[in-house]
Design brief:
The protein is mainly β and 637 residues long. The chain has two helices and 48 strands. The strands form eleven sheets. Strands 24, 27, 28, 29, 30, 31, 32 and 33 form an eight-stranded antiparallel beta sheet that branches. Strands 41, 42, 43, 44, 45, 46, 47 and 48 form an eight-stranded antiparallel beta sheet that branches. Strands 19, 20, 21, 22, 23, 25 and 26 form a seven-stranded antiparallel beta sheet that branches. The longest helix is centred in the N-terminal third of the chain and has 4 residues.
Length: 637
């Protein structure tokens, strides 16, 4: 320990002063004790000053040493050692020790650490320092992430999330490397937040949850009558932006950029997309179309519908698309029987969003007649692996009806189901395209209000429909208010019962989750204009208080059917809806509103209720129709 230029050495050592010295030593020995007398004179070393020291005296007794040292002009520190013990005093900042104790820092009272070994790496103040073995450091390096003693600077904090640009990473346990967790998608307005080391933004899936509003969609073309999938008959994705700012839309197919669009705040825009012949033309067989789906991304949450096809024609239908945040791995299919007159198949189309998605098919009692292909057997069974954007489209064979087929996947998928072109019922003219995006099992419910559509041109009287009640679980028991005179027990998952050509309005509930599919009767059924289209009923738990939706003004007649609890008030485009009609003893009412071109003439409309309401939107004309869910809260269950 350094004090005032002196080095104090413990037992058996001699402390020497600093500077140049000359002197004389005398020694005497008495009875085994040696006495050494050292006289030293300190001269000026050229600094213009000089000091003198009192002669130190050292006495040895056995192995013990006594040293006395003085300094001229100061109170000389002294140390006395006796056999078996040491006493210590400190004068002018020089420490002496006693009785086996260790010298301590006079200011802090703590023992100073010994210098680290040469080459040893220590961490200090966010830096990695290499010791020189003499109390100093050979080198130092600032650490951006973390410092590990003995190792030095780490690539990242062990086991912690962090950002590399717009890539969210997870640090390895040793801190020397990281693995990719997620590539934050700037097309969805998502960036990596360095404060949390994760992707962040309004479009992060965790922020959207199980909802029909999202930022990432997969419009998927399906089987359509071959005369209606070309030329001026177009397929379109319709985007509704309820935000107060524009939404930037990017549509790709695989690595190809297809379109970039902007949807203004509080508005809806139809974006036409090219037909994909491998998905829309022909009669089958079942097949996998690589990168067959489009991918539509927005930088803010939006709602997306697909119209197959968009403009008023003789073979139309539409689907409310579910964003990837609402996808799961379990679905039940609603389709319709293979159409024997024209050999037109029913279908379901499975779209993957991740590479290596394994899809397992479990045909229902009626779904075991399938056109084999793409890894699907003729009995409807199959295990098929899809990559991102791939589409597995399964087509029915004569005598088959894919309704009730179970689909399970080890990663989230989208399922759209329907029919290329069919009569509803099959003995009533004329055929039309059917499609709807299936709700995942988790979004199915136990209570629905079912109403038929209205007739063109004014919405009255009601238009006939076929209604199917499809079990998602075995031993499902149905209850109707009022009763509808059909079997009530569905023994197996995928079993269904149906009402044919009915105009009844009723509530249906069950003790387990199930699905309700509604099919508009064709024009030959005596209910006025319109041919078949398809709708999935919205569960009462999934109603909303507000909607922004689109009804193409090219149609002869557009309507919105609003189902509301008795006493609820509701407005369409800011105008109050008057005198809704009660639906029996269900506690609900129906308000039917004929839609004009909307306030701006673009077919866009708003609905606002004092309580949650459910809506279905449809268009009618001579030999044509579409029917689509206007929106729903899937996460309200």
């Amino acid at each position: 320990m350094l004090r005032s230029g002196l080095i104090l050495v413990g037992v058996g050592a001699v402390v020497s002063g600093c500077g140049s010295s000359e002197g004389m030593m005398t020694s005497a020995t008495t009875s085994g004790v040696t006495t050494v007398d050292l006289t030293a004179t300190t001269t000026d070393t050229g600094t213009g000053t000089g000091t003198s020291e009192a002669p130190p005296t050292t006495s040895e007794a056995g192995s013990e040493t006594v040293t006395t040292m003085g300094m001229t002009g100061t109170s000389a520190p002294t140390s006395t050692t006796t056999e078996g013990s040491t006493e210590s005093t400190t004068t002018m900042g020089v420490e002496t020790m006693s009785g086996g104790e260790t010298a301590t820092d006079s200011e802090s009272g703590t023992e100073p650490p010994p210098p680290c070994m040469q080459g040893e790496v220590v961490c200090e103040g966010g830096e990695a320092k290499v010791c020189d073995g003499m109390g100093g450091f050979e080198s130092s390096e600032p650490c951006e992430a973390a410092c590990e003693p003995g190792v030095g600077c780490l690539h990242c904090v062990p086991d912690a999330p962090y950002c590399e640009g717009d890539v969210a990473m997870k640090c390895a346990p040793d801190g020397m490397s990281g693995e990719v967790v997620e590539d934050c998608d700037e097309l969805q307005g998502i960036s990596c937040n360095p404060d949390i080391g994760l992707c962040d933004g309004a479009c992060v899936i965790e922020n959207l949850q199980l909802n029909y509003i999202g930022c990432d969609y997969y419009p998927t073309i399906t089987l359509q009558h071959d005369s209606y999938n070309s030329g001026t008959k177009v397929f379109a994705a319709v985007v509704a932006n309820t935000a107060d700012a524009p939404a930037a839309i990017t549509i790709t197919r695989g690595a190809m950029l297809i379109k970039e669009e902007t949807v203004a705040a509080k508005s809806v825009k139809a974006i036409t997309l090219p037909w994909i012949p491998a998905l829309t033309k022909g009669l089958g067989p079942s097949a996998v179309v690589a990168e067959g789906a489009y991918r539509l991304r927005s930088d803010r949450p939006v709602t997306v519908y697909q119209y197959n096809l968009l403009y008023a024609s003789a073979s139309n239908d539409a689907s409310l698309l579910l964003p990837v945040n609402a996808w799961t791995g379990d679905y039940v299919v609603a389709s319709y029987p293979h159409f024997p007159q024209l050999d037109y198949p029913g279908f379901y189309a499975v779209t993957a969003r991740e590479d290596g998605t394994t899809v397992t098919l479990a045909p229902s009692t009626t779904g075991n007649k399938v056109q084999a292909g793409g890894g699907v057997a003729a009995d409807g069974t199959g295990v098929v692996v899809l990559d991102a954007g791939d589409v597995l489209q399964v087509a029915s064979a004569p005598g088959g009806d894919l309704t009730g087929t179970g689909i399970s996947a080890d990663k989230p998928v989208q399922v759209i189901a329907g029919h290329k072109c069919t009569n509803v019922p099959t003995n009533v003219e004329a055929c039309d395209h059917l499609e709807e995006a299936m709700f995942p099992y988790e979004a199915l419910a136990t209570e629905y209000i079912v109403v038929p559509p209205g007739q063109s041109p004014n919405g009255t009287p009601d238009h006939g429909q076929v209604v199917r009640f499809i079990a998602a679980e075995p031993n499902t028991t149905l209850t109707f208010v009022p009763d509808q005179g059909v079997p009530k027990v569905l023994a197996k998952a995928g079993d269904f019962v149906e009402l044919v050509s009915t105009t009844a309005r009723f509530k249906v509930s069950a003790d387990k989750r199930f699905m309700v599919a509604q099919y508009m009767v064709g024009q030959g059924g005596g209910f006025g204009e319109a041919d078949p289209s398809m709708l999935l009923a919205t569960a009462t738990e999934q109603y909303r208080k507000d909607y922004l939706f689109h009804a193409p003004p090219t149609w002869e007649s557009n309507f919105v059917d609003i189902i509301l609890k008795n006493g609820t008030t509701v407005s369409v485009d800011g105008q109050p809806v008057l005198a809704p009609v009660q639906i029996g003893m269900t506690g609900y009412s129906l308000a039917r509103v004929k839609l004009d071109a909307g306030p701006l003439g673009d077919g866009n409309h708003t609905i606002l209720g004092s309580d949650r309401v459910g809506i279905g939107v449809y268009g009618l004309q001579d030999f044509g129709s579409y029917w689509v869910v206007g929106g729903l809260d899937l996460d309200h269950l």
